[in-house]
Amino acid sequence: MVRDERPAHLGVHRTKSTDLDVVTVMDTRSEELLRARLADARSDDAVLGEEVGLSGGTSGLSWVLDPIDGTVNYLYDLPAYAVSVAVVVGDPTVPGAWSPVAGAVMNPRTDEVFHARAGGGAHLLTAEDSRPLRVATGEDLDGALLATGFSYDREVRVGQAAVIADLLPRVRDVRRMGAAALDLCHVAAGRVDGYWERGCHAWDVAAGMLVVTEAGGLVSGLGLDEPASEDMVVAAGSRLHPVLREELQRLVQGRPRTTPPS
Known about the structure:
The longest helix is centred in the N-terminal third of the chain and has 17 residues, at 25-41. Helix 4 (180-188) packs parallel to helix 5. The protein contains 6 helices and 15 strands. A hairpin with a 4-residue loop joins strand 7 and strand 8 (112-117). By secondary structure, the protein is α+β, with helices and mostly antiparallel strands. It has 2 domains: 14-132, Fructose-1,6-Bisphosphatase, Chain A, domain 1 (2-Layer Sandwich); 141-250, D-Maltodextrin-Binding Protein, domain 2 (3-Layer(aba) Sandwich).
């Protein structure tokens, strides 16, 4: 529906947190369809969706939905957007209080479905085949291809630009593709070595986080024991993750670099 019924002259339906944070009519239609399907199949479960918010349930499970992740890409018809669906235990509105048990992220333009279940590994399903996913194994920052995203808040972007300015000369390169769920899945597939972003919500990352961890990677916040949250999401393979996380922590805190990162 998201791909085939996209209006030829799609426009902005409304904005949310800032004038840059846009919603299209298709975001709303996609979430309505997901909620209808879940109401038929899992009527006792709660649902948290980006556009509608939280509806209660009694089962202890909550479905976390991003009906179109990468809405600006979708608005401009760039082929990097996704539908992200996860089911979690715990309260998905409280960072660290929930854990995904299954999830899927689909890019309708490439017909790729990245999916995982807790303890069952992560896989990429295409029209041709299905294959397991594994994160990249590099550990050096200078050879890393990284991905990131930027806030819809123009003032926050100033600080994000400073982080990029420091890191860019010291890594292989940085990609900004515009869809957090896909960025996480690209980490899981080894297409990028690491990813970080500030301002992500549960619906942006719930499915992608599980895909990364089931592919052998790590996902955290900025601190060693901090969960991924709106403050920061850091994802990478197990050897690169602590290097990237510590560098980001230093940059965000404004501490000088005393020794070259390993």
